Amino acid sequence: MSPSASTEQPSPGRLVVVSNRLPVTLSQTNGEWEARASSGGLASAMEPILRQTGGLWIGWAGDDGELDPEQRASLLSSTAQDFAYIPVEFPPGAGEAFYKGYPNQTVWPLFHLFPARMNFDPPSWHDYVAGNEHFAATVAANLREGDLIWIHDYHLMLLPRMLREQDPAIKLGFFLHIPFPSSEAFAFLPRGDEVLLGLLGADLLAFHTHQHLQHFRSCLLRILAIESSMDSVEYQGRTIKLEALPIGIDPTGLASLIQHDPRTKERIEELRSQYADKHVIVAVDRLDYTKGIPERLHAFRTLMRQRPDLKEKVVMLQVAVPSREGIGEYQSLSSEINELVGEINGEFGTPQWTPVMYLRQSIERSSLAALYAVADVAWVTPLRDGMNLVAKEYCACKLNDDGVLVLSQFAGAAVEMGEALLVNPYDEEQVAAAVERALSMRPGERKRRMRHLRERVSRNDVFDWARRFLKSLAAVGLEQTPSAQALNVRAVEDAYKKASRRLLILDYDGTLVPIQDNPGNAVPPDALIRTLTRLAADPGNVVAVLSGRSADEMEDWLGAVPGLHLGAEHGALSRKAGTETWEHLVPTPGAMEWKAKMRSVFEHFVQRAPGSFVEEKEYSIVWHYRRVEPQFGHWLAAELAGLMEGLLAETDARPVLGRGIVEVRPVWVNKGLFASHLLAEEEPSLQLGAGDDSTDEDVFDRLGEHAWTIHVGTGRSRAQYWLKDTGAMLRLLDTLAATAEARAA
Ligand code: GDG
């Protein structure tokens, strides 16, 4: 254990770690079941904290339902001290089906940018959902108040939402160990929207790098139309933190093997004498197509062809740990590598020299440390990797700073390891040249580069990583301002029944009808007209639909609903129930000369952003960019708003950013004014205001403190409550309409 691990307690809560596999595997040897602990970086980072907090680690033990629960529990308890391993129970065969299907055949290839290797079999999605449900059930059965839940990786991306739905108050963080792809690639993922929604159940979502985090944000925007900031996203009344937290390793553990462990020391001596007259290049990977093993072998062959003088002077030790052997892709990769190694050794080898030593097996940690310690060069060239721990482990083992790291620019580790020789693993000539340079680098440069690398790897170790994650997770509730809570429909219904006079002010787009790419398509469906008619028919109700749209559109769409109040242009215009005329609630627009000046600027933005258009209303002028590529659209919107601020400085008009729009209107036009007028005329005993964007906040502010203010959809709001979407809003209105009718009958 690292000394840093035992000193600082990261959080007061009990830690519950959830990962697909427990760091203990139950397997059968000669008919006898045994528990074998794996000593990965994650296990060594989690176990001290689990021990400190008496925590739990929940995961699959790999026995696939063949053991009875008691046997399993007793085997597992023999491996954990002061904390518990809790196995997730799967029906026989279901654990394997879950693991091998959607996570490894669909998500893994796509997230590593191999869409052509992606397989999607619809039943595998159902296994994925069911697998996550098994985890959810096990977690829920073991949870205690105050627990901090930390979910790991891509197998469990639906779990955050499942757990949140069971208990909205839990504290839950998720870490993705693999890269997150760009939105263009992510769009290929079948059921990708479900995956994003699953992740949004967390309070904290962390990735290895900023690039992965930015890709996640852009997927939220493009696929779910959810906006976010660099470090957070607002969703259903919660703030979800977003962080880039590169994982580290246990450098002290490795160094102490090299310095104090007799087996490691012995192995170092053996390797040194075996390869005394040779440069040693090491490569260590799981046998996976993302790790670029064939590409590396091709580059090695190029190097050998270009540099015949390296004959008998260099050896490449490639360790490849078999992985996911039941999947066809992996079997053919294994054969491809065998053939390549055979070809290279056949082409260049001599009776005294085998250029590529290929170990297709797992080796002991002590041998691995010895290999790193002895190797002159580490050749770490994955085609794509979340982080890549081998790169960091190698540096941690160069205690005298004498070694060179050749690293793929597509490994997450490249972000932090600029002193390595960074290469594009697809370019075999460039890679071969980098390895050549590594082999001939002068000692001064080698040591300078490695010293920086090693110091950084030592500072940002895996314990520090875990502490930072948990500190951030523990602070979740404390940093958040109290925000909206989910609306309890039953409670509104009760209040509604008791009230004799009720005022309902409802926004239109995004509240009563879903937002459309083309605003002209948001025609009210018949069901909405019927519900509004029923509500407005109740003599106890004043029902108003208040929108930023023009009076003409409001009249066309809702003018025929008897008894309905209408508000247009954010309440600057009002049409009372039972009348046919529109009243100006604010001074008449008058000259508003600024509008003409703005028109040409707006038109210029339409030219810059195809798909956008300008709408002119009595009191305002609007640039609609909903159909423009979202990031470009937001960027231009900010530029337009900034430009307007300057141009309009002398007037009383200001730009306002809305959902997919920039609107310029006089400051005195706002929905709060409309609400005030209605409140002055009525004396409602129940007030309800619902809206989805920033213009509706003025209504929430104007209604009394006991009002039912409802924010529809995602994002931050000063409303007291939120509802998921327009569908939920309509169901609420239907329920209220039915309540009144039942009473009247
Ligand atoms: C995922 C992400 C991310 C390898 N061979 C042996 C052995 N190993 C150990 C290495 C290293 C680990 O396995 C491999 O870690 P990687 O980071 O390279 O890759 P993944 O397994 O794909 O892990 C990855 C990681 O999660 C952490 O977030 O870095 O990007 O894909 O620790 O030393 N260990 C032993 N014998 C071997 O033969 N004992």
Question: What is the strand and helix layout of this fold?
Answer:
Blueprint: H1 3-7, E1 15-21, E2 24-29, E3 32-37, H2 41-53, E4 56-60, H3 69-77, E5 84-87, H4 94-100, H5 102-111, H6 122-142, E6 148-152, H7 159-166, E7 171-175, H8 183-186, H9 192-199, E8 204-207, H10 210-224, E9 232-235, E10 238-244, H11 251-260, H12 262-274, E11 279-286, H13 293-306, E12 314-321, H14 328-348, E13 356-359, H15 365-374, E14 377-380, H16 389-397, E15 404-408, E16 421-423, H17 428-440, H18 443-459, H19 462-474, H20 476-479, E17 485-486, H21 489-498, E18 502-507, H22 526-537, E19 541-546, H23 551-558, E20 564-568, E21 573-575, E22 583-584, H24 594-608, E23 613-616, E24 621-624, H25 630-647, E25 653-658, E26 661-666, H26 671-681, E27 686-691, H27 697-702, E28 708-712, E29 721-723, H28 726-744
Parallel strand pairs: 1-4, 1-6, 4-5, 6-7, 7-8, 8-10, 11-12, 11-14, 12-13, 14-15, 15-16, 17-29, 18-19, 18-27, 19-20, 27-28, 28-29
Antiparallel strand pairs: 2-3, 9-10, 20-21, 21-22, 23-24, 24-26, 25-26
The structure holds GDP-alpha-D-glucose.
GDP-alpha-D-glucose binds next to strand 11, strand 12, helix 15 and helix 16.
